[in-house]
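Narrative summary of target 7.
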Amino acid sequence: MSFNLSLRPRIRLLVDVVLLGLLIVLVENFRRLWGPPTKRGFFCDDESLMYPYHENTVSPTLLHWLGLYLPLISLVVLESFLSHRKDRGHWATLWPVYNTVRWFLYGYVSNDLLKVIGKQAIGRLRPHFFAVCSPHFPDGTSCSDELHRGDLKYHTDYECRSDLSQATEEMIRDVNVSFPSGHSAMAFYGLVFVALHLRRRRWPLPGSLLSPVLQLACVALAWFVAISRVMDYKHHWSDVAAGSLLGAGSAFAVTRAVVSEELQWRCQDSLASAKQEAAVADAVSVKGGQQMPHDLSLVTCQISN
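Modeled conformation, tokenized:
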């Protein structure tokens, strides 16, 4: 999602909005396009699937505030504050805000897409599988019957009995999408992105421990969300580890893209300023092949990129 900075701002904004919109539509409809997730079997004596059902410690609403809304609001406020401290043109003031927000949203949607691909493709059963599904076999028996005690057979032909487990349709539908943990992926992406951004901006109070403490708070919140999924028996520990790595990895990758795009913009901005200064000073070519100031700026930018 990198565009030529010479394009007009309105055109670039339109392209970004269209692409982000298409990605959001893809993510929201991915389950329909993919179809039912992979149906995995189980062993009747698999203790990792025998945990009770618990409600979420971190609700979906709270998760969206921690992983999306609060990070996005924080980034907009921070970039707006830092940009308005500098005496620059209107677009130059908005550019850091726009660049940070578009890459954050791009990373968020990409992280969500990778997560849902994993869930649909792997189809791993949740730790509370037996409590929610209450699986019964075609002959009407279940794992609690004497026939299947000590049975080493891997069962793939079964039906969930919500009338026995009192599970809702949503609980039945989500019982086999354990890998990776979506809570962990979202929390780690949003909060690690903010932590990395604070580190890059060296804000607030450069040289003090305030910024590292804020970064630690972000990571600690993400960590709590992740371990709550194991506490609530919603995920296996490996699901949480995979989701956390996915979210943190996406945050690192997108942050690097933000830095690269910003360096390119600063180089072009510096080059434009150098050309304006040269025009005002009515500079003339220097004999002997000596470079003009704006030429030197361009070379420096190319080397840095």
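The radius of gyration is 26 Å.
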